[in-house]
Amino acid sequence: MGNIKAALLLKCPRCEEGNLYESQNPYKVGKMMEMHKNCSNCGLRYEKESGFFYGAMYVSYMLNIAFFVTATVFWYAFIEDIIDWRIYIGTYVLLTVLLVPIIFRYSRSIWLIMMIKFEPEKRGER
To answer: What is the pTM (predicted TM-score) of this model?
Structure first.
């Protein structure tokens, strides 16, 4: 399945050392989607072919559904009687929009660990 630690740290799925993204800040204007072409440590090319990251859309969908279910269960369990449903929906939509850069990055990272074998012996093999 891959290396979950690499996905969470947004590191290379093969060697777990090189950064996936040019900027560590997902909210940096113009740099949210900018990935390195290759791992700076092991040389792995991240985008194997044109359209490789289309599969990450399914991961993004999964993450968004998990967030929606969690938020909805939390609302029904704890705050339904306190807060009007319109405030809940507005807050949920606002949070979803604010989380787009983070979900985008993690969906690509998770997609990579699903597709690329973890090979710690490749560390520093550039």
So the answer is: 0.84
